[in-house]
Amino acid sequence: MITELFPSNKSKQNEAPFVIAGPCSVETPEQLMTTVGQLKKEGISWIRGGVWKPRTRPGSFEGVGEIALPWIQAAKKEFGVKFAIEVASANHVELALKHDMDMLWVGARSTANPFTVQEIAESLKGAKVPVLIKNPINADLSLWQGAFERFQKAGITDLAAVHRGFSNLREQVYRNSPMWQIPIDFKRTFPEIPMICDPSHIAGKRSLVQIIAQKALDLSFDGFLIESHHQPDLAWSDAAQQLTPQALGEMLKNLKTRSIHFEGVQMRNQLEEIRAQIDQADHELLEAIHRRMTLIEKIGEYKKLNNVAVLDLDRWKEIFETRPVWGQEMGINEELIQELFALIHQESVKKQTEILDKVD
Ligand SMILES: O=C(O)C(=O)C[C@]1(C(=O)O)C=C[C@@H](O)C=C1
């Protein structure tokens, strides 16, 4: 089972994360052998490599295809490594299994298409390989969850999720927006499924890979899928985001792994005490919201009696402008206050509309 590969499931703390690394694309037998050999020297024994590359636009390099599979078999034999490749159709699955691939992954563009996910899941029935499912290219949590449900329904349960970021036209720093809340929400709904981070596709450039990888460890991710090439600048695809095996080894040494839980009685007691205070603060927050809602209902009754519209834009504008200023004085993030009051106002309007529409 794939879960056995992850340190967080072995109850050991501060252990090195599980890493699958390798070139974006398998290009030639020489490139593969050299890269795999160098990765092995860095202690990496799970290798990735693209054979079929689904590209956004035609004309760019789409992978060397099936001929790469015997090259991979040779590299596996030479270095005693395991290999993971992407599959995007039943035909790819059949070929991958025929050539002893050890792990498969479903790419972001495939996850976005339920027909493709269904086809891959069905073609894998009875197979023993673990499968990684990357998040869909668009920021749609349920589409990602749906892909897992399709695999589970087909009886394939040896699964892990890969967070590779989301396509976002407004994003400027990264190639794909990390939107960390989405993988966190995924972990909440599928706690038994390990979550791997692909910092290469989020970062888009090698100088940012470590920052993303560290953030993933801080958020208790279980491992990495990282692109590495022995001559990154000459790579046939994704040249800017690939690291040399040596740079990757160095980066992995520099990453700080964290414990999942607080260790030691004193630390745990302190934490309990602070959490009790948080419970109290949350209670007061809910009481304040309840008090506000009671007042909203009072105004709602008054508006109904006097035949006044629910929405009062001037008052709403005043609230929307003053609350962030109040919050700023307390050091609270402006965006949080705006989002919070937008939700609160939405609820007020809903409550008052119900009051006005109620037939007495
Ligand atoms: O002040 C009012 O008129 C209200 O009904 C309260 C309230 C609010 O949530 O604060 C709700 C709806 C209006 O659009 C403006 C403000």
Automatic annotation (TrEMBL):
Could you say which EC number(s) this protein's record lists? 5.4.99.5
Q: What class of enzyme is it?
A: isomerase
What residue ranges carry the coiled-coil annotation? 264-291
Show which residues constitute the signal peptide: none
Instruction: Please indicate which superkingdom the organism of origin belongs to.
Output: Bacteria
InterPro entries in UniProt: Aldolase_TIM (IPR013785), Chorismate_II_sf (IPR036263), Class-I_DAHP_synthase (IPR052899), CM_dom_sf (IPR036979), CM_II_prokaryot (IPR002701), DAHP1/KDSA (IPR006218)
Could you list this entry's UniProt keywords, alphabetically sorted: Coiled coil, Isomerase, Transferase
Q: Give all residue intervals belonging to the Chorismate mutase domain.
A: 265-356
Q: Name one GO molecular function term.
A: chorismate mutase activity
Report the protein name in the record.
chorismate mutase
